[in-house]
Amino acid sequence: MADAERVLIVGGGIAGLTLAAALHQQDLVVELVERNPTWHAVGAGFLIQANGMRVLHALGLGAAIEHAGAIVRRWDFCDEQGEVLCETDLEALWSDAGPCVGIERTKLQQVLRSGVAAVPCRLGTSITSLAQDNQRVSVIFSDSSAGEYDLVVGADGIFSAVRRLALSATSPTDLGAMNWRSIAPIRPGGLTTLQFLLGDGCFFGLCPVGEQRTYGFGYIMQPRSRDPLEGRLERLRNRFASFGGPVREYLASLERDDQVHCSAIEWVEVDEWYTGRVVLIGDAAHASSPLMGQGGCMAMEDACVLGETLRSAATVDGALSDYVSRRKPRTRWVQSQSIAAAESLRMSPSIRDAVLRERGDQMMQSRFGPLIPAP
Length: 375
Ligand SMILES: Cc1cc2nc3c(=O)[nH]c(=O)nc-3n(C[C@H](O)[C@H](O)[C@H](O)COP(=O)(O)OP(=O)(O)OC[C@H]3O[C@@H](n4cnc5c(N)ncnc54)[C@H](O)[C@@H]3O)c2cc1C
Hints:
The protein is an alpha/beta fold. The chain has helices spanning 14-25, 50-58, 62-68, 90-94, 105-114, 161-167, 232-239, 245-253, 283-286, 295-312, 316-344, 349-368; strands at residues 6-10, 29-34, 45-48, 70-72, 74-79, 84-89, 100-104, 121-123, 127-132, 137-141, 146-149, 151-154, 173-184, 194-198, 202-208, 214-221, 261-267, 274-275, 278-280. The chain folds into 2 domains: 6-70 and 107-172 and 268-371, FAD/NAD(P)-binding domain (3-Layer(bba) Sandwich), CATH 3.50.50.60; 173-265, D-Amino Acid Oxidase, Chain A, domain 2. 37% of the residues lie in helices and 27% in strands. The site of flavin-adenine dinucleotide (FAD) has 33 residues, from α1, β2, β3, β13 and α9.
């Protein structure tokens, strides 16, 4: 066991909450600080693929997730009108790694929080400075309080303050794409599978989540722009007006602009993930384009592997070095494949559709195959 008994986790997103649950189960003394003053999950819905579910089941949270979400057994790539180009059987792909589950982000957060009920979490708190020697890290918080820890984990997302304070001035890179996410209270066309309807330089995805609801996400390759709240839903309907199948029914069932969350797509690549007793996990270390739907699952895997290496290594340095060497190849794979998938949206639709008809399922098997073995 590494000499890290007292751990500070900065950030209460997927990475931070999963790690807090894992370390608490290992009897470490864990504290978590979250910048938001209330628990607030941004971004509508989420697909937890089997490799993420494998982590959550190991933490005893898998059954609650399956109960709160919807098991997704297949995903289909379709043309703009909803005609299927290729389909992938997710149960066969992931074998016994676990099911894939569509879930609303608020429900995912509730389940993750249930796993950290005994961990002190300070909301509305950030960090303002970090200093370390060989033995510990001294932290000053935004409320002027201070603390000393054996290990500080930056789970504070793509714009990580921990990364900036301790490791690197690297800024996220803009991918040149925007997305619009929402939850509708229906299952358009009796949707049971995850569907991607592909247009010219854009797609619309639909994923079943719990309680007969659906997560919808529109994605367009376009420069970053501001989409004001007023009139956002009408503009979204217009942007995808040429789409058939279930997209029109989905968009018609939304009622308000504030149901639609809009953001630009960014990613970040950082060379060094740790220094001394400070380490990064999740998006802080390797935010990715969402085209593989793996960023959150990678964050969960990071948490699981860091827990394991802290348990098995003799020193903090050994644990962090093992963590990085186990995680980097896998997260780099996801980043490179996600960028390749995003670039394929620039292809002419007729060529892309022909390629997907001919070998779409095979391409998915090669893209996800390396993630099937446990990390
Ligand atoms: C459009 C889109 C769709 C996606 N879909 C999926 C999907 O279906 N499946 C999937 O696996 N992944 C998906 N992802 C990726 C996934 O959302 C991220 O990879 C995941 O949320 C990363 O979790 P995280 O905890 O590392 O970071 P975050 O979710 O960003 O959480 C960081 C937390 O830290 C807090 N914080 C920030 N700064 C500070 C600070 N200074 N002090 C204290 N707290 C701080 C934030 O408030 C936040 O709560 C998607 C991403 C996008 C953009």
